[in-house]
Amino acid sequence: MSAVTEHTDHGTEAHDHADHGSHPTTLTFVKVAIILAVITALETSTYWWVEDAHTVAMITLFICMAIKFVMILLWFMHLKWDSKLFSLMFYIGVGLAIAVYIVALMTFHFFA
Amino acid sequence: MADIAVHEGAHAHEHDAHGAHATSTGLSNNKLAMWLFLGTECLLFGGLISTYMLYRGRLGNGPGPGQVFDIPLTSISSFILLMSSLTMVLAVNAAKEGDDRNTRVWLSATALLGALFVGGQVYEFTAFYQEGLGFTTSLFGSSFFTLTGFHGVHVSLGIIMLMALVGIITRSKVPGDKAEVVELIGLYWHFVDVVWVVIFTLVYLIPA
Amino acid sequence: MAIIERPSAVPTFAGAGANAPAVVTPTQGLGVFKRPVAASGWKSWVFTVDHKKLGIMYGVVSMFFFLVGGVEALLIRLQLAAPDNTVLSAQVYNEMFTMHATTMVFLFVMPMAAAFANYFLPLQIGARDVAFPRINALGFWLFLFGGIFINTSWVLGGAADGGWFMYSPNSSPLFSPGHGVDFWVLGLQITGIASLVGAINLIVTVLNMRAPGMKLMHMPMFTWMVLVVQFLLAFAMPVITVALFLLGFERNFGATFFNVDAGADPLLWQHLFWIFGHPEVYIIILPSFGIISEVLPVFARKPLFGYKFVVFSGAGIGFLGWGVWAHHMFASGLGPVSVAVFSVATMLIAIPTGVKIVNWTLTLWGGKLWFTTAMKFAIGVIVLFTIGGVTGVTHAVAPSDTQQTDTYHIVGHFHFVIVGGAVMGLFAGLYYWWPKMFGKTLNEKLGGWNFWLMFWGISITFGAMHIVGMQGQPRRMVVWPEKLTGEGFFNLHFWNQVATWGAFTIAVGVAFFIVNVVVTARKKERAPLDPWDARTLEWITASPPKEHNFDVIPTVHALDEFFHRKYEEVEHEDGHVKLMKVKTAEEILAEEEARADAHIHLPSPSYWPIVLAFGLPIIAYGVIYNLILSFVGAAIVLLAGFGWALEPSVAEDSDYDPPAGGDSTKELATIG
After folding, report:
1. Among residues A57, C50, C528, C600, which is most buried (max CB within 10 A)?
2. Which residues of A touch B79 (CB under 8 A)?
3. pLDDT averaged over chain A?
């Protein structure tokens, strides 16, 4: 073939090929799914007690959301095993979105 | 444009099972593009979610979130979408092992669960409409339907891609690396699920 | 991406595009269509996925829109040349300035930068094409169809009239009852998709398709700046998409997102627009920065001063560009805290910009300057952009900005940076790269006229605007009345006329460019292979480059790789180490051709990008006139999507000529 050969000389970039060999088993994914389901149940339960303990419910909800978000990314979307460059691409988007929209909402005194 | 990126089965040849051949980073072009696309989608959904957050208390003469939301129902459909992520992961696993039959089974299951979710959404929208919350009733209505509608369209596109993929695999016409195509659609699907995780919490569970 | 094997071409010495493309016969039907394989004629352009052809098409189309936007600008200036003028009615005037800005920003500067990015980015990183050639073609067709779509509004009841940032309530059905704003909304959605897919494509290309040894810190500055721009595009486009959807739903489906009567906050539009709009400012200017960072070192015969500083300040501008959007909204009542925060952030962004200007100046310092037209334009950018930048910094000071908001002072400021900065930079690129793209050098004498007329035209027009703005003339007013003209040296009458004369001076300058293109096209004399003694990898190829760009994918050892292949350090008798030219470009090209790759794999043309892109304006017309049409458009998009998805990435054996198979070396490789 042409002079196009493997050249992985870019030290800063990751070359994880971890999922070539041993990618996680079905059991791992089932476990993750069960955990996600349990968290969703916990989240839903706040519906019935949110009036009694508003602050606790809010904190619970945000923590649960964050855990679910990260778990899906890391396990289901393989970021745990994949290249850091993929994570970077995605996290730039998430980070920018959170930053600019929170600032925009702040100018509307949304959090006041 | 996701369907395009997904089906862009570029550098995949028999001797190149991982689609990551001869690139500067050793990573697949397709996966890099997909992750970047998902990153940009965050800005799209972020904007829609922010619009909703800003307007959710502006009810005009219409009903508010507390009056129309049916949390048990939405919890069930959230759970269904969450489980569709599991079936999607299993499809990706099967595809990586070269198991066409199971790939098709799990892809179909994913599409079915997704369709159940969309069905739930249609039911929910209909119910809301009957309770007096239309698209133009109030700013809450407009921003709610816009946000969840955009998500629903994303799920629907995902279902189309999943079903198309099942068909293409059945006829052995997958352009390029089959496992990677499944994985790419999987990434898209999980992302749609992740967005729903955020919407479910911010829109449905946190009281206005 | 489909990949087609083609036989190795017969090496020709410095053969300017002499290699006849290999014949590929479409023996294998693909679905209902056969693969388009024409190597010449219109089909070879319409179905092409070649980044160079797409780059040229981007350039031609954006030049056309440049002329359209220019005529619109001249009409505006004619209207404002005299008090209480009646060249344009108020309504047409509103449409004129809205479309002037929209055309210049979205249909000229951005796609013109995309033209250079498409053509030169793969060449600069040593690739044979972009990562997704078909998506590249899709981007171009979406841009073209989107641009045509927006402009059809002129004959379908009037164009958009709300100003290019389309503030509510001006954009609402009440104040803009025609379809103009709908055309604008939908057209920008279409070109927005073009930008988004183009951005993803180019980012992946830069990260993944570099030649061996081309580390990130070996990349030419143009490539770097394009990379930053594509990141800005990729993440800013979805924000405007949201805003446009909300506005579209408001206008077409009865939502009230920006309607104060219904309790909405019209500021939401402003935030969404400017969260996109400020990164957009850097999307406009950074390609030009990249171009002059190529041009200045070449014509100063020195390496770029502080390469790393220029890279990181470019990235820094890109990052900070996300945190300053509300400085466009100082007059909207944001509240003191927000104003103070955004004011400080805006001042900060002057730092990386200043770093760049200092670096360019120091690149010139002590260099053996060669004042070609490209160099003149590049120096023009430094001068004019700095002037515009300085008034920009004063706008960061909120109390001062509040005075100037919506006056001609602001118009003067941003035209200095956009026309003096971005457009002059693009012209520098045209003169610098023309011999590479077309094998002929543009006429230097006509180029001189082109440059000086534009330079003085810009200075006069937009300088005069600063003055009338300071005198209080608001922007976007169809007339300035005689009785408010004022007296003395700074009267509106005189300076408005000056601005109009200046605008026509720019137009004459641009006309010289067009004359130059025609004159150059008709002359026989071909440009030398390396007319400027350039430094970067694109100059290692033939002029114009062969279809496969490089006979051998170059292995890169240094920044300014091409320079280092031509020059080596030689020790003189007196012990001094001096750079000596050891090879000419012709010799280097001959060496490359002598060891050309036997089998070069190029992506094959495709029908699907243009078909898919064609569906979108149909959807858009449907939204305005009849939803049934939208379903037709959607069906086209869906079908094209399936055709695209099913197009094999590996061409069938029988697609080859001679047919592949058996012992033939049908080894398929990824390109680049």
Report:
1. C600
2. 37, 40
3. 80
Peptide bond connecting C279 to the previous residue in cis, omega within 30 degrees of 0: no
Closest CA to C543 of C526, C562, C560, C521: C526
Closest in C215, C334, C669 to A1, CB measured: C669
CA C557 to CA C634: how far, in whole Å? 49
**What's the token pair of residue A76?**
């289901």
C239, C268, C552 member nearest A3 (Cβ): C552
- Mean local confidence (pLDDT), C109-117: 96
User: Residue B3 falls within a domain, yes or no?
Assistant: no
Q: How far apart are CA C321 and CA C279, in angstroms?
A: 5
Which tokens is C120 given?
């030169």
Provide, rounded to the nearest whole percent, the portion of chain C with pLDDT above 90. 73
Task: Work out the minimum CA distance from A48 to partner chain B, whole angstroms.
Answer: 10
Q: Where are the domains of chain A?
A: 22-81, 83-112
Q: Is residue B14 part of a domain?
A: no
Print the domain residue range for B103. 23-205
Say how many CB pairs under 8 Å bridge A and C.
57
Structure confidence by residue, pLDDT tens digits, A5-17: 334 334 333 444 4
> Residue C551 carries which side chain, given as an amino acid letter?
D
- Asked if the C-beta of B81 comes within 8 angstroms of chain A's C-beta atoms, the answer is no
List chains touching A (3+ CB pairs under 8 A).
B, C
Q: Which residues of B touch A47 (CB under 8 A)?
A: 71, 75, 205
| ipTM for the assembly | 0.89
Residues 6+ apart with CB under 8 A from C596: C8, C9, C11, C551, C552
B153 touches chain C (CB under 8 A): no
CATH of the domain at B76: 1.20.120.80
Which residue blocks in B56-172 are alpha helix, DSSP H? 65-68, 71-96, 100-130, 139-170
Q: What is the pLDDT of residues A74-109, one digit of tens each?
A: 999 999 888 999 999 999 999 999 999 999 999 988
Residue B91 domain-assigned? yes
Residues, chain C: 672
Q: How far is CA C210 from CA A75, C65, C131, C217, C230, in A?
A: 31, 33, 10, 12, 17
Task: Judge contact between C495 and C485, C-beta under 8 A.
Answer: no
Model pLDDT, residue A23: 65
Chain segment C396-413, per-residue pLDDT in tens = 999 989 999 999 999 999
Q: Which two tokens stand for residue C15?
A: 């053969």
A1–C267 CB contact, under 8 Å: no
- C38, C42, C602 from C24: Cα distances, Å: 8, 17, 12
Q: Do the chains contact at A2 and C599, CB–CB below 8 Å?
A: yes
Q: Which CATH number, 1.10.10.10, 1.20.1420.30, 3.90.950.10, 1.20.210.10, labels domain C51-522? A: 1.20.210.10
Residue B11 counted as domain residue: no
| Residue B7 contacts C, CB cutoff 8 Å | yes
A22 close to B (CB below 8 A): no
Residues 6 or more apart whose CB falls under 8 angstroms from that of C20 comprise C9, C39
Residues of C with CB under 8 A from a CB of A: 207, 212-213, 215-216, 231, 235, 239, 265, 267-268, 271-272, 275, 322-323, 325-326, 334-335, 338, 552-553, 555, 597, 599-601, 667, 669-672
Q: Judged by CB atoms within 8 Å, which residues 131-150 of B form the interface with C?
A: 135-136, 138-139, 142-143, 146, 150
Angle in degrees, 0-180, between the axes of helices C267-300 and B29-55, rounded to the nearest 10: 150
Q: What pLDDT sits at residue C38?
A: 64
